[in-house]
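Final report, closing paragraph on structural work. Over the funding period we assembled a curated collection of sequence-structure pairs, and we close with a single example.
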Amino acid sequence: MHYAMTYPQHARAILVLGLPLVGGHLAQMAIGVTDTVMLGWYSVEALAAVTLGSTYFFVLFIFGSGFAWAVMPMVASYAAEGDETGLRRATRMGLWLSLGFALVALPLMIWSEPILRLIGQGDVVVRGASAYLEIAGFGIVPALLVMVLKSYLAALERTQVVLWITVLAAVVNAAANYALIFGNWGAPELGIRGAAMASIVTQTVSLIGVVIYARLSLPEHAIFQRLWRADPQMIVRVFMLGWPIGLTSLSEVGLFAASAMMMGWLGTVPLAAHGIAVQLAAITFMVHLGLANVATIRAGNAFGRHDPLQMERGGKMVTALSLGFAVATIVLYLALPEMLLSLFMQEDDPQRLEILAIGVGLLAMAALFQLVDGAQVIALGLLRGVQDTRMPMIFAAVSYWGVGIPCSYFFGFVLGFDGIGVWLGLVVGLALAAVLLSVRFWVVTLRDLKAAHP
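Its predicted structure, as stored:
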């Protein structure tokens, strides 16, 4: 399939594939927002405990997702080659590795209390968070398996179904939360434990939905036949591609977790402003993340076809779309910061003006990092497509931990710029990652691929 696509054709293909993925990421975020809102209604203590518990869950989940992300470029590449056996083997061993990771992570969830105490959290919050994790922890098994199957479906360009399954999960989650946290519809009132049970119900429903779809719509792949049979050669390939992806994601999550901790040192109001600004930045980031997934799939396809020219064109187009969206976001953040921040606060909140004053500055910094955050995740997506994950992991560790976190501390506390300084450190870390990853793809990888397949 070595026909030349024009840039508008690339743009259309990217949007058709990408918009449902963006929607899926936003629906996934809606699940977190629903939990926050409902627990906030229940009690402040419950909200604090589950915020800590779900952050802990998320860190383990992100690390374990590396194997699911690895399945995406592999399946895209095998599909382009017409290799159904390879595609089936990669997906199955992705399921194996994800299940293995989930079982290793499970004890860390069930007995989380001593770990949470070690990181210096208060007694009430620790008790609530560990009670939440004792139940919610079991959800990591279906959650990671769903990730693998979503990657498999997305790589085959079945992104619409990924969106609908996530939307279904968001609806189930809201209903289960409403019933189990508050004791509505004849269910017992379980508070924190109810929220944990609701998350397991949600993940299980997602898993059932995605398995049924894969079996009915792609029977020729027979993904679940003889699933118990080991495939040592393929398990090693998925593992070698997957663990650096897990660590790369962990580095970025670590950067944002460290920034939240530093904002906490500045006090409750700066932390609240940070929470809102991060939430806004996360919503717009989902667009870049969806486009990065498309970059992985389309680069993976071109990689399988040995077609670096189309990979380059597609890469330029997806980068341009990300850049265009970043510019629109920057205008929005700088033009209407108060309006955006107010969406997350009550009108009569006594600290509203203080939070707004800090939040406006933070949103100006968030505008700065829209450009670099988009650029780094797109370059990362393109590199994953060509199955290059080891160097990006090193770049991420150096950019986020070696440069970003120290810069946040230096600008925030040594130079005394407070919250703005902490966020400036984030910008520096993300900018360095964007430069390193972009150079790696555009200068090194593409040149090598063109030399190999002129």
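The longest helix spans residues 268-305. The mean pLDDT is 89. We thank the funder for supporting this effort.
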